[in-house]
Each structure stands twice: as C-alpha cells, then as structure tokens.
Design brief:
With 188 residues, this protein is mainly α. The chain has two domains: 39 residues, no CATH class; 144 residues. It is built from five helices and no strands.
Length: 188
C-alpha cells in the first residue's frame, strides 16, 4: 500500500496554511506541491478550449443581441414595419395593433433569451474556473513571500550573530590589551 501523497505535504500545510494535510482542499494541495517543487502553477485560462457549434452560436447570438448594431437595426425594422402597415400599404398585412409583429417579437424573445442565458452560464463557469486559478496563483505567491520573509529573517539573525561574535572578539581583545597595559605599569 502506497503512502498518502498528502502526508508528505503535512509539514508545509501546518507551516504555511495552519492545518493538517488531510484538511487541505485540492487547490491548496496542488499549490503546496508546486511551491515545494518550485514549479510554475499557471495554466491556460478557462475558455481557451474548443467550443461546440451550439456554444459558438450561443456566444455569437449573445454578442450580437447585446450590441448597438442590433438595437439600432431592430428599431429601424420596427419603424419600417409600423410605417408600412400604417401609411404606405392600402391593404396592410398586419394592421394596427400589429398582432403579427407581437407574435414575431414574442417568438424572437422566447428563442433569444435562453440562448443568451446559455452563453451567460458558460461565461459564469469560465469566470469561476479563472477565479479558482487566480486563487491558486495568489496562494502560491503568498506562500513564496512568507518563505522569503523567513529566509530574510534567518539571514538577518545570522548576520546579527556574526556581528555579535565579532564585537565579542573585539571586546576580548580590548580587555586583553587593557590587562596587558595594566601589567606593564601603564595604568598609573
């Protein structure tokens, strides 16, 4: 039976995240593994994968349906429809109150709304995946920064200890010089 791969992360998990390796989420475990190996964590952003025909069509419909081009062209179409049926045609095909136009608009809305919602749902999924990736990158950066702080603290402590040792050597040397001077009678 092979050992739990998270068990090797236990010291790092306690040190950096304050919890046992068993309590780590998948993202936290992945981040700690990359931090220990000093490897790159960044992956391709969500949404770069190949889209199906339906997903691509939904994105195009949502893109066009939410544009000024669509709004302006639709307003022009409505004005032409109303103008043709009110003033230009002696036998209008859709007399006021434009029942056929209402039917067409209802069918358009009934089809367009779910397609736009499909596109928005896909975008929400991509946003959640990208947010999870951002979290992992930020967590790894935070762990790396804490590690750098520890290294700097260790270096500072070593430097201070070296300075203290040198100062102690100088004090000892001065003490010996003063004693020697006293022994030679220079202290009168």
């Amino acid at each position: 039976m092979s050992p739990d791969p998270r068990a090797e992360l236990d010291p790092a998990a306690r040190r950096w995240l304050g919890k046992d390796a068993e309590a780590l989420t998948e993202a936290e475990a992945r981040v700690l593994k990359h931090a220990r190996r000093r490897s790159v964590l960044i992956r391709r952003p969500a949404g770069d994968e190949q889209k199906t025909f339906g997903e691509s069509l939904a994105d195009q419909v949502a893109s066009f349906g939410g544009s000024w081009t669509f709004i302006i062209s639709f307003c022009v179409f409505l004005l032409l429809w109303a103008g043709a049926n009110l003033w230009l045609l002696s036998q209008p095909f859709d007399p006021y109150p434009f029942i056929f136009l209402n039917l067409m608009l209802s069918m358009l809305a009934a089809l367009q709304a779910p397609v736009i919602m499909m596109s928005q749902n896909r975008q929400a999924i991509k946003d959640r995946e990208n947010a999870a990736r951002d979290y992992e990158v930020n967590l790894k950066a935070e762990i790396e920064i804490m590690g750098l702080h520890e290294k700097l603290d260790r270096l500072r402590d070593e430097h201070i200890m070296t300075l203290i040792a040198k100062q102690q050597e100088q004090i000892d040397l001065l003490t010996r010089l003063v004693r020697r001077n006293d022994e030679l009678g220079g202290g009168r």
